[in-house]
Amino acid sequence: MYAGYRLAGAGRASLTVGTVVVVALLLRGPFLFSPPFLSDDIHRYLFDGMVQQAGDSPYAVSPEAYETTDPIVSDLATKVNHPSLVTLYPPAAQLFFKLAAPLGMTGMKALLVLADMAVVGLLLLYLPRMGLPRHGVILYAWNPMVVWEIAWSGHTDALALPFLLAAGLLVVRKGRREAIMAGALFAVALWVKLIPVIFGPFFLLASRRRAGWFAAGGAVASTLLVGPYLPQMGNGVETLVLYGTTWEFSGFLFRTIRDLTGMNLVARLVMALLFCGGAGALLWRQWRTKMSHFHALGWAAFFWLLATPTLHPWYGLYLAMFLPLMGDTFNGKLLAPFLLTLTPLLGYVVLIDFFAHGVWLEGTWTPFWVFAIPLMALFCPKEPPAALPGAKLLKSLTNRF
């Protein structure tokens, strides 16, 4: 990925649309037909879908309390993680589960890869129109995190991405219809995975005088998606609250503050305030200096990944999608967001002891490096000081790649 991006940017390698697509498909193909190894979330997706196929609500009861005579559903219930909890996946994701579950695991992952490739197609189409290098699509299309988390693990974030990207492309256009469509698309992304809520203020600012129409489109789409799952959906909210107050993974900054204060909820509140402060600064800059909409979205995703108490590797998919739209990644400070699409994969080190001894125990250093590597890239100078030993050699090696 890195070599392809640098060589294409330097004009040393021709990069056609066909090359990008073919390589992206070749990277995804082997994982598409492989059972998930890094995450077992897809079993919950399949279970929720099969429950709906049987005419029941996925929000009604937990997998361990669900009564069925279907051996397939019973087997899925035993494979779901946290089977005592009702599903927390939003209505748009549930609709997808219902439609895709009869296709089985491979079929569901294939549909998610189609959504993933739709992002590749949109980037290939719009990067040149926005005056950005087309080869930037490599940073998403060939990114190992994107390949593994979608084609291998089959995370539903892949379904939210094309709706979120399409909404971002529409919201900056002038026109009432575009604002309504952008709001509807944003709502679909939000009800696939709630994570896009952090981008809501940026979309409202981008729509500016058409913010009302944007909100109206989102309200209509939300009503259509949420309505069929009421009132049982309230059970899922309870699981969501539990997730937001107790879950944690690979969040170095959160863990540090929690350990210093000895108070879990205080540390979570501090993280929320830190992110809101960073997002507020980005919103102010976007408003005052006409900062690029996608540039702001990318940095918002970056700050959120650093601040969230739960940093699952697939949460980096949003940053990976915005990365090609932020400019030249290896020019200036954009190297830090690029690295943060990769360092969360270090969190999978926890699986070594889990598979070998059945012990789920995060070390201290893994979250530190997930956090520290992008931060070092953010605050380090673009080029090494000339007086630094080996600086000329380092610079020559960098230029070659």
From TrEMBL:
<feature type="transmembrane region" description="Helical">
    <location>
        <begin position="335"/>
        <end position="356"/>
    </location>
</feature>
<feature type="transmembrane region" description="Helical">
    <location>
        <begin position="6"/>
        <end position="27"/>
    </location>
</feature>
<keyword id="KW-0812">Transmembrane</keyword>
<feature type="transmembrane region" description="Helical">
    <location>
        <begin position="110"/>
        <end position="130"/>
    </location>
</feature>
<feature type="transmembrane region" description="Helical">
    <location>
        <begin position="184"/>
        <end position="205"/>
    </location>
</feature>
<keyword id="KW-1133">Transmembrane helix</keyword>
<feature type="transmembrane region" description="Helical">
    <location>
        <begin position="211"/>
        <end position="230"/>
    </location>
</feature>
<feature type="transmembrane region" description="Helical">
    <location>
        <begin position="266"/>
        <end position="284"/>
    </location>
</feature>
<feature type="transmembrane region" description="Helical">
    <location>
        <begin position="150"/>
        <end position="172"/>
    </location>
</feature>
<feature type="transmembrane region" description="Helical">
    <location>
        <begin position="296"/>
        <end position="315"/>
    </location>
</feature>
<protein>
    <recommendedName>
        <fullName>DUF2029 domain-containing protein</fullName>
    </recommendedName>
</protein>
<keyword id="KW-0472">Membrane</keyword>
<dbReference type="Pfam" id="PF26314">
    <property type="entry name" value="MptA_B_family"/>
</dbReference>
